[in-house]
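so i finally got all the pieces together for this one. its two components total, 229 residues if u count the protein bits. some of the lines might not be protein, just check the labels. i wanna see the whole assembly predicted at once instead of chain by chain like last time, that was a mess tbh
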Amino acid sequence: GQNIDQPTEMTATEGAIVQINCTYQTSGFNGLFWYQQHAGEAPTFLSYNVLDGLEEKGRFSSFLSRSKGYSYLLLKELQMKDSASYLCAVMDSNYQLIWGAGTKLIIKP
Amino acid sequence: GAVVSQHPSWVICKSGTSVKIECRSLDFQATTMFWYRQFPKQSLMLMATSNEGSKATYEQGVEKDKFLINHASLTLSTLTVTSAHPEDSSFYICSAKKTSGRGGPQETQYFGPGTRLLVL
């Protein structure tokens, strides 16, 4: 079967750095997406990785290792507004998006 | 940009009535749109995938006669919840993407703001 694993919840301190991991087992691979979802709102697109390596976008970076079936989202200089759920999703060989359950990130002052 | 709108954002209705939710891609043509449902503190659940001009593909366990989907144009898809009951109360979210089955960042799904449905 197809599976995406990410931690259920993480806590970090304002100003710090946090890394949210995602591991996957899917039928083929056509890219990995990270989305941010604030409570009560719809998801918003953060990043897309299809090749191995690190993609940096301001305070957020996303890393991919296809051989390990592994990705992480790195958030630097955490702000209170970064408190949200972070969803990892993988596109399989049929271009179907397989969603992880999301990681709830709690930022403390 | 890639902006998706949904209307209405909130709807309260009586049990047994039907509710229509619209999803529009405002600045791009969406070959494929998706409808999700999310219950409080739970994951996104894909309900159905719709391609313009063809019938929607429903996920297992989703009643196609209850959740009617119409993707009449490249910028509009509608979800109609027929004979709504309190257990249908949920957060319904649509998403749209520009291409289908070619891979790459064009496969990114862009989400509408969601519609909260409360059935009394």
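The CA atoms of residues 29 and 92 of chain A lie 5 Å apart.
Chain A has a mean pLDDT of 96.
anyway lmk what u think
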